[in-house]
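Hi U.,

Before I forget, here's the chain from the pilot set. I'm dumping it here mostly so it's searchable later in email.
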Amino acid sequence: MITREALLQEVDAQYRQQRELNQAEQERRLAEAVARDARIGELWEERRAIFQDRARQAFASPQDAHAISGVLRGQLESLHNALRARLRACGLPEAYLQPVYRCPLCRDTGYVGEPVRERCACFTQRMQALVSARTGDGLNGRETFAAYDDSVFSDEPLSVDTPETQRSYMQRLRQRCESYAELFPNNPRRNLLMVGMSGLGKTFLLNCIGNRVRERGHTVVKLTAYQLTERMRASIFEHDVEPFRTLLTVPLLLLDDLGVEPLLSNITIEQLFTLINERDLDGLHTVVSTNLMPEELQERYTERICSRLFDKRAAAMLRFVGKDVRLGSTGIVR
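Structure:
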């Protein structure tokens, strides 16, 4: 069972390791600079001695701390100018000896804010990535826009009332899905609702979106509605809350086959509303696929859930129509 405490400890350990790597890199840079110009090492030691001396003075005389800080700034500025000049002269960047951080906001501590400390955004991202690594992101890596083959769809008119074929219609849906993935996270409408019978390619395009967004460096989690119910159940009865908590904060959530999951009393509807509502309030992106029609969704779920799924300000609905396709080799069957 994945516990939040265990994950926090693991991410904290990653930050400690990163700080050690940062320190080693800074020491390597200093050694390189000193090898080129020994005076750089002397200036560096003078700088450190001033820091230590002024820190002792400020601790001994707190009432003089402001004045001491003013003197310190003047002395350090002079040393910094000398260091920058020496670094330039020996062919190194002026900022070569500045502290090394992956995250300039928290300086690789995982915390921001004074006096109230909060987790940095980079920490949350690491937590999400760790949970995804433990539970899997659910994506089928083979189902991509590059692998999408619209020739499997019929080239006959969809109906006697329109000359458009299922193939040309699916080409338009594919383009909309690819545009969504390319624009992420700056989409005009952050959510997509894919509706239509099975065998029309919803799951394939869901994976296409997820794989493209992941390629572009964003965290994605895809799961079926049944898997979602399992996470809901585990969070309540087994106190395994982190996998469900991750779904509340992951940048892109892909929920497949909504409507096939069991309706567990006091769990499914309540937790699903919490998930959709919290993500909506936080402006996060959610893509849902379902074999149910809008009226069937309204019958199955509460008005509170459907009002968010159908909200035209935040969500676009993609209707999948045509003949059921079965093509085992490419998997465009769902």
